[in-house]
Specification:
Blueprint lengths: L2 E5 L3 H13 L3 E5 L2 H10 L4 E4 L8 H11 L5 E5 L4 H9 L4 E4 L4 H16 L14 E4 L2 E4 L4 E4 L2 E2 L4 H12 L5 E2 H9 L14 H14 L7 E4 L3 E4 L3
Parallel strand pairs: 1-2, 1-3, 3-4, 4-5
Antiparallel strand pairs: 6-7, 7-8, 8-9, 10-12, 11-12
Organism: Acidovorax kalamii
InterPro entries: CheY-like_superfamily, OmpR/PhoB-type_DNA-bd, Sig_transdc_resp-reg_C-effctor, Sig_transdc_resp-reg_receiver, WalR-like, WH-like_DNA-bd_sf
Pfam families: Response_reg, Trans_reg_C
Length: 238
């Protein structure tokens, strides 16, 4: 059972949201201000945060920045009435994993929470290994060296940019499963900017460009990146 911290100063919304999440088998703790949330996080471990921005005394971004500095990998979903593009950009650039505006649909919130928590449980760029030494993933003629962030196809090194490597590693880590656009964009947001590129909001159309480029580099193999309409992408097993 995942434990969620809801940081919200609207008592009615806080009570309603807590009740609905508990019905969905989440364990819930609550805070109505940034200091209260910080104190709770120092006493109790949680699996994720639902964070309002318009809080009394201090903005929710302050809590987000503090959490990123003190609790590595803690998933944060911003839930706020601020629906401007600049607000979204600020929240995501500050380290939020997702951003949803009020009023919201409970089913959408549930889906976003599940995706966010799933990403936290399944790191994008690592492959679990029970042995010491280089962490390798082998998919037919494709070999990924996660320690060196390098890939080879039919024994020949692949020339990959940082973003292409991250995309390929995520698809390979979940080979045969659908990887959503949000999964990829969240993984990219969590990684350093490519050399020579300014930090900027990542767009969905940029993902399509990287998928196209990666398909061309895998063209000489039985591996295929499928476009799953309305969902995302899937790397077929060779």
């Amino acid at each position: 059972m995942a434990t969620l911290l809801i940081v919200e100063d609207d008592a009615l919304l806080l009570d309603a949201l807590s009740g609905q999440l508990k019905q969905l088998d989440y364990s819930v703790c609550t805070a109505s201000s940034v200091p209260q949330a910080m104190a709770l996080l120092q006493m109790q471990a949680v699996d994720g945060i639902i964070l309002d921005l318009g809080l009394p005394g201090a903005d929710g971004i302050e809590l987000l920045t503090w959490a990123r500095a003190h609790i590595a990998g803690l998933p944060v979903l911003i839930l706020t009435a601020r629906d401007g593009v600049e607000d979204r950009v600020q929240g995501l650039n500050a380290g939020a994993d997702d951003y949803l505006t009020k009023p919201f649909n409970m089913q959408e919130l549930q889906a976003r929470l599940q995706a966010m928590l799933r990403r936290a449980r399944q790191p994008a760029f690592t492959q679990a290994s029970s042995t010491q030494g280089p962490q390798l993933t082998t998919l037919g003629p494709l070999v990924l060296d996660h320690a060196g962030q390098a890939a080879a196809l039919n024994g020949d090194p692949l020339d990959l940019t940082q973003r292409e490597w991250e995309l390929l590693a995520l698809l390979a880590h979940r080979v045969g499963e659908v990887v959503t656009r949000d999964d990829v964009l969240a993984a990219w947001r969590a990684s350093p900017t490519e050399p020579g590129q300014a930090a900027a909001p990542l767009a969905s159309n940029a993902l399509e460009v990287y998928v196209h480029r990666l398909r061309k580099k895998l063209d000489a193999s039985p591996l295929n990146i499928r476009n799953i309409r309305g969902l995302g992408y899937m790397l077929n097993r060779p």
